[in-house]
User: Which sequence fits this backbone?
């Protein structure tokens, strides 16, 4: 057992526990906070996988911006402990069964295909650095990069239009 | 040195938990968070493969997925706020206005 492997198992345990905590807590605020911790552990995985730039982006964009937006909306709506409506009695066992089938299938396919059996060593220091990512983003992926800026603009306009109060009516 | 299959298994488990969240929860916000969890699971697989094959495109894709997720969250939360204003509930079972 190398240090990497021990670290992986500890962080993976935290990741799965927080994901289940997000799924099972009754209070939406607790769910959001569990998800923040889950995103932080995923950032640690990115560091282990030699992707430092993506790891920092994960922390700032996901754990920072997106989850703050979630918490803001939860508290704005006072939706932290809304009672859930009565569900169909057979729905939960069926969902768990289907999810188990999905997990088993995907893991089975991953192992039967043997796509990449090798381990992940330490690539050279340049791999995944902000400089390398920037060079690739602004050369090979310039058009998609510009398209995402339009996407963000459209999302911003859409969010404003959806939430603004209607003139005259009670929107 | 961690085998890449460990990362892929973890990604599959996280994705399954997210799918389970979409299936069994009724709170629209929790369903939305589960979708984010699934996106993250896919990102883990992307970065793992990028690291195995030493191809940087996988990490660039994660970048784009994050952008799309941010846009999706902005619009989705605006929709949830708009729905809450009219229905005073974000329970997805209550949204049956089109039911015949």
Assistant:
């Amino acid at each position: 057992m190398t240090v990497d492997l021990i670290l992986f198992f500890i962080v993976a345990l935290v990741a799965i526990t927080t994901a289940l905590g997000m799924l099972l807590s009754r209070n939406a605020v607790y769910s959001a906070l569990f998800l923040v911790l889950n995103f932080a552990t995923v950032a640690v995985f990115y560091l282990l996988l030699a992707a430092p730039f993506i790891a920092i982006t994960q922390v700032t964009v996901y754990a920072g911006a997106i989850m703050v937006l979630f918490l803001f909306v939860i508290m704005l709506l006072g939706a932290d402990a809304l009672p859930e409506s009565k569900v169909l009695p057979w729905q939960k066992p069926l969902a768990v069964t289907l999810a188990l089938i999905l997990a088993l299938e995907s893991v089975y396919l991953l192992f039967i295909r043997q796509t990449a059996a090798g381990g992940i060593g330490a690539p050279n220091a340049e791999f995944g650095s902000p400089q390398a990512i920037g060079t690739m983003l602004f050369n090979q992926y310039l058009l998609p990069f510009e398209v995402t800026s339009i996407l963000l603009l459209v999302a911003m306009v859409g969010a404003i239009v959806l939430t603004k109060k209607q003139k005259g009516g009670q929107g | 040195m961690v085998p890449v299959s460990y990362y892929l298994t973890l990604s599959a488990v996280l994705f399954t938990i997210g799918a389970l969240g979409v299936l069994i929860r009724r709170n629209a916000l929790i369903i939305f968070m589960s979708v984010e969890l699934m996106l993250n699971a896919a990102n883990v697989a992307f970065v793992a493969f990028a690291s195995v094959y030493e191809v940087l495109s996988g990490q660039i894709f994660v970048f784009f997925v994050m952008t799309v997720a941010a846009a999706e969250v902005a619009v989705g939360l605006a929709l949830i706020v708009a729905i809450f204003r009219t229905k005073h509930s974000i329970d997805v079972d209550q949204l049956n206005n089109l039911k015949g």
